[in-house]
Amino acid sequence: MAYLTIGDYRLYYEDFPPRTAGTSKHPVVFLHGFTLDHRLWSGDAAHFSRSYRVLVLDSKGHGLSDTPPTGYSRDDRVEDLVSLVNNLGINKAHIVGLSMGGSTAIGLALKYSERMASMTLVSTGAAGFDVGPKIRGIDRLAREKGIESARDKWLRVSLMWYKKDKKHIRDLVEKMIREHSGAVWKDPMRGRYPRRYDLDDAHRITVPTLILAGRLDKIFLELSRKLHERIPGSRLSVFESVGHVLNLEAPDRFRKQLESFLETVEANGD
Fold first, then answer.
1. Could you read off the pLDDT of 230-264 as tens digits, one per residue?
2. How is the chain split into domains, by residue range?
3. Which of 44, 68, 98, 113 could form a disulfide with 122 if both were Cys (CB 3.0 to 4.6 A apart)?
4. Is domain 2-130+194-268 in CATH 3.40.50.1820, yes or no?
5. How many helices (H) and strands (E) does the chain have?
6. Could you give the CA distance from residue 58 to residue 60 in angstroms, rounded to a whole number?
7. pLDDT tens across 89-110, in order?
8. How far apart are CA 211 and CA 51, in angstroms?
9. What's the Cα-to-Cα distance from 89 to each of 83, 115, 211, rounded to whole Å?
């Protein structure tokens, strides 16, 4: 549990050393989705730190990180991540990102591919991807009626899939969203940052890439397929009966596939 100071704000992160002595594997960095935080990856951090150094962090405005008034673009998240791994003396890492975190990983791959041993995109977002009117409307709600109105709507959209049989997922996701600062919605630059279009640039990605998506994730499944078509050599795995928060909904399948992918990359010396 620690903070890295970057300029006038701090990023919260947790650093788990590998429990296997003498490992030479690249560290694994997990990046959370929008309005979520490092707690998304608690079970995964415990699992993978058996043989990998694992980092989880909170993006600005999320979790325990600071909430500056602006600086919430994808480019800002990429630079924050580079600052963190530089500070920790990490030259190259496996990057695993869910949703917004996947978009951050893509941004890193397009600008700093030499810093990545591999990239795993989980229910991924992407710069320039149209999330549809339902999600866009929440931004408008934040501007017109305030953060709490936007949060309430976001909660309804985010939690609608998690019924009684998935109460543990619902409770965690709800807790993270309710404790989210709302700073990203208040950013005066939101919607005005320079536009990127990852589907136009995805063919330039050269790092080994695994793409994981849930069959029930109607908004992001098609994006995952399009990225798979464009990223050379990428692998796509679609999880049946699974929605957006894939690592919580199917943790055993998620960890098994990610572990196999990471081991293959390590064995190939990438």
1. 999 999 999 999 999 999 999 999 999 999 999 99
2. 2-130+194-268
3. 98
4. yes
5. 11, 8
6. 6
7. 999 999 999 999 999 999 999 9
8. 22
9. 10, 12, 27
